[in-house]
Specification:
single chain, alpha+beta, Beta-Lactamase, 2 domains, five-stranded antiparallel beta sheet, two-stranded antiparallel sheet, 7 strands, 42% helix, 19% strand
Length: 222
């Protein structure tokens, strides 16, 4: 073997080792969830982010079917239809499911899947990446609830505006249909206000002077 050939092999080996270490470093440091699958959906590798989130060590996960290990049963078809039910896996695609952790908790994940092809154009394996969107979904739900609460509050708000025709003698108000109503009833129908009745000092002095000292002991007006 010539020195040149030996040098090329050394360089190639070094390059392969560098690429392997580089890709491994990316897998283990990214916050995205990454799982490598074969064409049947079996797990070949997963990164630290999904290990920590789901609670499954790599030795527990390798060889298991991705959707059976990580997804609730009612959502298996999101992935199984792509791998098993279809004549050939259909990629790329995106899907949103829940992730089932080993401890039983679940979170919402947005998945993106793409196929890695061999020289013949057939699928060699599939890379599935996921992003935990639980916080985003919670924020969206809280926003939707706030909007509903505000709409409900606005629907209950009643305001009085414009000119109100009022009788100069009995103080009744004429409504939009031309009927005359007591002012209390009109305001009650057109706002969220209600009434409780009492008697002011001036009226008490005119109508019930004998009770003034009891009702308004601080009143000094003759």
């Amino acid at each position: 073997m010539s020195p040149g050939t030996r040098s090329k092999r050394v360089d190639s080996t070094h390059l392969i080792r560098f690429e392997r270490n580089f890709l491994s470093g990316i897998l283990e440091t990214t916050s995205a969830l990454i799982v490598v699958l074969d064409t049947q959906g079996r797990i070949l590798r997963l990164n630290r982010a999904i290990e920590q989130l789901a609670g499954f060590a790599i030795l527990e996960a390798v060889g298991a079917t991705f959707w059976e290990l990580f997804l609730p049963a009612e959502e298996w078809s999101v992935f199984s239809d792509r791998f098993v039910e279809s004549p050939a896996p259909r990629f790329p695609f995106e899907a949103q499911t829940r992730l089932k952790a080993k401890c039983g908790t679940v979170c919402d994940v947005l998945w993106s899947s793409s196929a890695i092809l061999n020289d013949e154009g057939a699928t060699d394996f599939v890379i599935v990446t996921g992003i935990d969107i639980s916080a985003l979904k919670k924020a969206e739900q809280e926003k939707e609830k706030l909007i509903i609460d505000l709409q409900s509050a606005l629907a209950k708000v009643k305001t009085l505006k414009g000119l109100l025709p009022m009788c100069a003698n009995c103080q009744k108000i004429r409504d939009d249909r031309g009927y005359w109503q007591q002012v209390e009833q009109y305001i009650r129908d057109h706002s969220d206000a209600d009434f409780t009745h009492g008697i002011c000092p001036e009226c008490a002095r005119k109508l019930y002077p004998q009770y003034m000292k009891d009702w308004y002991p601080d009143d000094r007006k003759e």
